[in-house]
From TrEMBL:
The gene is thiE. Mg(2+) binds at D71, D90. InterPro entries: Aldolase_TIM, ThiamineP_synth_sf, ThiamineP_synth_TenI, TMP_synthase. This is Thiamine-phosphate synthase. Condenses 4-methyl-5-(beta-hydroxyethyl)thiazole monophosphate (THZ-P) and 2-methyl-4-amino-5-hydroxymethyl pyrimidine pyrophosphate (HMP-PP) to form thiamine monophosphate (TMP). The lineage of its organism: Bacteria, Bacillati, Actinomycetota, Actinomycetes, Micromonosporales. It comes from Micromonospora phaseoli.
Length: 208
């Protein structure tokens, strides 16, 4: 399996956002350091998720970028994405691994060392760990775990830990120092006035 990119761009499909325009801006600067996770609203249809995934797969293929699908693993398979990401309300990691097959990239959400170790035993190849900081992108989240929470998970597992939730370029150094391999962001790229520049700033911290 090729090494995982350190900057995970999660698509922002909220009204007024343009995930493909953001991706087109970020791709040339981030290249293979980028992972794109297609995440659509729960109210989106499978067809909408599939169409967006196909477009992302086509856009990213020339750059060797890994494309993943959040939650909807059948969409990942149908669109020939590299894998998917599951959390507590999705298929269990063992079932997700069965669906995707042995070589797919499979991310799982974890907040604590115990659940992190279980997810890795069940077949997760990386962990999404958070929320690290306050965020308005997703509601109903549990309390933030901060860099200390990331460190606790990173010390417990030997797969890449991807910090998520309110992550900005300013926070990347402390997350890296805590053992995060990379970061996953929605707003830091989607809401940026200049997404390419925002990606460069995130990548600067990730390369240290
Ligand atoms: C990299 C990464 N980490 C965590 C999540 C959150 O997944 P989940 O807990 O299933 O929540 P939803 O994204 O499905 O709302 C993620 N998507 N990516
Ligand atoms: C999907 C998800 N899961 C935990 S935080 C989050 C949203 C992250 O978005 P942002 O990077 O804008 O805080
Ligand atoms: Mg989910």
């Amino acid at each position: 399996m090729p090494s995982l990119g350190r900057l995970h761009l999660i698509t922002d499909t909220r009204p007024g956002r343009d995930p493909l325009a953001v991706l087109a801006a970020v791709l040339p600067v981030a290249r293979a350091e980028l992972v794109v996770q297609v995440r659509v609203a729960e109210t989106a249809t499978d067809r909408e998720a599939y169409d967006l995934t196909q477009r992302v797969v086509r856009l990213t293929a020339p750059y060797g970028v890994t494309c993943l699908v959040n939650d909807r693993l059948h969409v990942a398979l149908a669109a020939r994405a590299a894998g998917g990401h599951v959390g507590a309300d999705d298929l269990p990691v063992t079932a997700a691994r069965q669906v995707l097959g042995p070589t797919a990239v499979l991310g799982a959400t974890a907040r604590y060392p115990g659940t992190a170790v279980e997810a890795v035993s069940a077949g997760a190849t990386y962990l999404g760990v958070g929320p690290c900081y306050a965020t308005t992108t997703k509601s109903g989240l549990p309390p933030e775990i901060g860099a200390a929470g990331v460190q606790a998970v990173a010390e417990a597992v030997d797969v890449p830990v991807i910090a998520i939730g309110g992550v900005t370029a300013a926070a990347v150094p402390e997350l890296r120092a805590a053992g995060a391999y990379g970061v996953a962001v929605v707003g830091a790229l989607s809401a940026a006035a200049d997404p390419a520049r925002a990606a460069v700033e995130l990548l600067r911290g990730l390369s240290c």
